[in-house]
Here is the input.
Amino acid sequence: MTFRTILLAGVALAAATAVQADTAEKRIALSNNYAGNSWRQAMLESWDRVTKPAVEAGTVAAADSFTTAENQATEQAAQIQNMILQGYDAIVVNAASPTAINGAIKEACDAGITVVSFDGIVTEPCAWRIAVDFEKMGKDEIEYLKGRLPDGGNLLEIRGLAGVFVDDAIHAGITAGVTENPGFKVVGSVNGDWAQDVAQKAVAGVLPSLPEVAAVVTQGGDGYGAAQAFAAAGRPTPIIIMGNRQDELAWWKEQKDASGYETMSTSIAPGVSTLAFWVAQAILDGKEVPKDLTVPFLKIEQADLETALETTPKGGVANVEYTQEDAAKVIAAAGGA
Amino acid sequence: MTAFAARPWIWSWIAMAAVWGATVLFTGGASAAGVTHAALTFAAFSVMVGIGQMFVITLGPGNVDLSIPATMTLAGTLSLKAIDAWGGGTLVGLGVSLLVGLGVGIANFTLIRALRIPPIIATLSTSFIFQSTAIWANRGIRIKPPDALAGFSTDMTLGVPNVAWIALVLTVAAWVLLERTIFGRRVLAIGQNMRAARLAGVPVDGVRFATYILCALLASLAGFLLASFSGGAALNMGAEYLLTSIAVVVIGGSSVAGGNSNVPGIWGASLFMFLLVTMLNTYGLGAGVRLILTGLIIIAVIVAAGGRTRTR
Here is the structure.
């Protein structure tokens, strides 16, 4: 789904939001493990922007968000236990670890609480999962590059935070894509930790020893840093896949205006938290919802660039917030009612 | 050999030269200039925070500043926000970042002295406050530095990056401060034995206060420059400088127990830390192997440097 279609769908459906009396007494909590970057900040803001009107309209009784200070699984487990004691009807969770808080999740389920995990999903079977097909994200990057560079070329891969499953999944997708398209060759790989300054540092270090690089495959939050490093080293700018951050999009626009530069940008919208909210509401409402749901990527292509840049706050992340109807569609797509 | 042993920083320089050589050899020497330039640029930030941390650690056991990453983030965020809101360019940003440093230093030492909280706990708690203040101030929005400032921080003069020049000037000043002034002697005296220093008439509280402020000022300056260099302040921009600031002090040959520090080692260790990652990246090793080797090599360098001091 492209940025534009999501945007249009959102506008068209926003007016039709119906009040569900069945969940008017229900209280939903957001358990979030980390708030220390712009993506997470946008995620929390989206949560507020969507859930506040929902509470005012009486769709649900409460939608409180809580963030742990230290990004530790133990801390988040304790936080979830508190939520159980506070008697929430549903807990929406972005987990610090896919497995480490399973115990607390199970306790919540046993207490009759609906648990919906998203982005950082949990493996505990009693919880719902709104997952992102990160492997496909990696494969899509190579697919796009195949269209741009039919003869292949040298790739620099910027990976995320070592040891996090998201990093492994995107990497696996990229590796699979490169295996299918032997014209491409990964000549260098660094860890950018999804942060512009870390990526810039890592790329600047490895760049002098690399042959000509045709394209940079990334994981989001690292494209602008890579661009800076190439510029500082005085090397021609390769095709750098972007990750929907405003500074990346602004840089892309600058290059596009100056030299017709073309690339694409892909990431998950931080507003996925609002999708999780509506899914939790639907489950509380008694809807049949499959345990595994998939959230679409937010992909920005050359033609969408200007629109995306206009709607993205300066210094923030391109975002989409979901409506109740969007959630119903995602649920229907996964085979639910 | 005695002259060698008297210079514990020599090991970080030897290690740095070895890693540099190994990296450059990989490309048959072609990457020498590029690698050196990148190393000088990124080591400069580690040097700035490393010097501050070194002075704090010199104060003796238990003294460490864990609020450096949060201070960098706060200073970077507020200074660029101030420039964006008020105009005035670099000077306004510099002023705001130094004010942040001053405030951070006062807050840290107030907790340590007035409330008698151990520095490791005090600075850890204040770092939550600083980090939250940075989040509250800008909600993770990246404000771009003005062009002049961004240009300055990424440019070079006489073939050396501007940020490295700044770090070099600060290093010389730190060396003079530590080795040639009464303040420096007092810091060392406190680190060797706080009680003895107090009995000898050293104003212990005043010196410790000034040291924590010095550390916070350097962290703020580094945060301001890093934010200008990398195109805006990010909420997690300081994260990797917590371990780095302590590691460069230890690898540089300063005693982690305090009372015995040196300035040149900070440079050797900062360059070494950057080049080590660069070397392992250049050789194309996976992240797991890379992290294990990083740990092992750092241990090896510290053991080599520590072995020297034992035999002395």
Q: What stands out?
A: Residues 10-20 of chain A have pLDDT under 50 and may be disordered.
